[in-house]
């Protein structure tokens, strides 16, 4: 039906593989750490450190341009990721498995970031601009299937295996969870390796970029020049502040929200199982994000970014109040809980569109537009890492109700940087 090299054969699978790796490392690991008995502070901290490699990937992206083909890096990265997740599963049988597991996750985050660079490189160099535009929606949809499988399917399956297959008690955290999570990592390893074998058959090689560095010296010069020109932009520090702070409250909420769902009612949580957490976050929550993103894009397209950016900031931040209300009243109704998560996720998706478009239209334009856009997303990733590292410790010190009050207070800097965000280019 499709000829070899046809984008439909490798674009969906390529971006799904990227998202599956990223979500397993930076999101699902926090739930696994929590299940295995870590406190909220450690679980959020260790999982957040794994964002670092994805944040700094613009620094080593030129090296991927210099050697072999982009397809070569994609295949190597996916095979290593698959073998790495299998190694994690095997390591869980060892006495000091936690130390080995955290080390392996760190290595896998570097490899996963390399997979992202190479996969994007194949997409950009193997397809002409018209085809890139045509497959943009498929690319985005395929990436968003990753969180459904990881944060939804794998978390749900871990809970089902824990209670129904291994017959352990659902609400008790500790080493008993090793049995189910070992199977999860073997499944992810198999999916990733099969994907690599598929890409070996159908993915094009990917051409070298016209401005690809020919040596380490060239790569260093390009990186230095991109930094210099970045900080020469007009009002750059206001734009840096916007890129870093816009999602501040989301960074504080991202890891703690799921912990709040699974923690016992006696500890201020909602006492949900992994199965319900996977269903709520990976299905209803993600559908709400996708719908919000779609409507947010239409909203910006019709009214323009400068006229709507502050409204979009309100959409991202104000609905976080649903978690504050749930922590105060601790509802037992699944309908109320699902509605609370869906409202927050819908408006997050709606408002986040403005953040990405601002980076594209105001921060990125210039000599190194792609690199400068990556700097902007890197600043956002740095914010998510820093807030994630401290979020669990703050929650333990404050309790859930006071912590979610802190999340609402953290929306104030977002409002300020959005109000003063400069516009020097037309929408």
Automatic annotation (TrEMBL):
Q: Where in the cell is it found?
A: Membrane
Q: Its topology with respect to the membrane?
A: Multi-pass membrane protein
Main location per the UniProt record: membrane
Q: Which domain of life is it from?
A: Bacteria
Per the record, its GO cellular-component terms are: membrane
What PROSITE patterns would the database entry show?
A: MFS
Q: Does the keyword Transmembrane helix apply?
A: yes
Question: What is the protein's given name?
Answer: MFS transporter
This chain's source organism reads Duganella callida
């Amino acid at each position: 039906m499709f000829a070899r090299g046809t984008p439909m054969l490798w674009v969906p699978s390529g971006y799904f593989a990227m998202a599956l790796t990223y979500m397993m490392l930076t999101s699902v690991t926090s739930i696994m750490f929590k299940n295995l008995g870590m406190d909220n502070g450690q679980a959020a901290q260790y999982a957040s450190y794994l964002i670092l490699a994805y944040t700094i990937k613009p620094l080593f992206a030129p090296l991927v341009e210099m050697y072999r083909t982009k397809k070569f890096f994609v295949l190597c990265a996916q095979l290593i990721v698959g073998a790495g997740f299998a190694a994690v599963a095997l390591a869980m049988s060892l006495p000091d498995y936690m130390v080995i597991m955290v080390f392996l996750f760190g290595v896998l985050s570097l490899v996963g970031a390399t997979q992202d660079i190479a996969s994007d490189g194949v997409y950009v160099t193997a397809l002409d601009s018209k085809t890139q535009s045509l497959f943009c929606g498929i690319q985005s949809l395929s990436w968003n299937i990753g969180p459904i499988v990881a944060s939804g399917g794998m978390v749900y399956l871990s809970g089902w295996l824990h209670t129904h297959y291994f017959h352990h008690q659902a609400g008790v955290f500790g080493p008993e969870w090793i049995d189910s999570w070992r199977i999860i990592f073997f499944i992810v390893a198999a999916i990733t390796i099969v994907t690599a074998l598929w890409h070996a058959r159908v993915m094009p090689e990917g051409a070298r970029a016209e401005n690809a560095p020919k040596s380490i010296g060239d790569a260093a010069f390009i990186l230095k020049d991109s930094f210099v020109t970045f900080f020469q932009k007009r009002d750059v520090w206001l734009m840096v502040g916007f890129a870093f702070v816009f999602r501040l409250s989301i960074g504080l909420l991202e890891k703690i929200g799921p912990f709040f769902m699974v923690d016992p009612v006696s500890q201020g949580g909602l006492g949900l199982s992994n199965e319900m957490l996977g269903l709520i976050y990976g299905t209803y929550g993600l559908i709400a994000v996708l719908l919000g993103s779609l409507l947010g894009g239409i909203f910006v397209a019709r009214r323009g970014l400068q006229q709507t950016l502050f409204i979009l900031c309100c959409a991202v931040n104000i609905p976080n109040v649903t978690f504050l209300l749930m922590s105060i009243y601790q509802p037992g109704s699944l309908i109320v809980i699902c509605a609370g998560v869906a409202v927050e996720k819908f408006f997050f998706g709606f408002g986040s569109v403005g953040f990405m478009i601002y980076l594209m239209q105001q921060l990125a334009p210039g000599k190194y537009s792609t690199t400068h856009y990556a700097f902007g997303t890197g600043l956002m990733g740095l914010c998510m890492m820093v807030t994630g590292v401290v979020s669990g410790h703050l929650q333990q010190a404050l309790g859930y109700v006071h912590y979610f009050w802190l999340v609402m207070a953290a929306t104030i800097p977002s409002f300020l940087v959005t109000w003063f965000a400069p516009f020097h280019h037309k929408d």
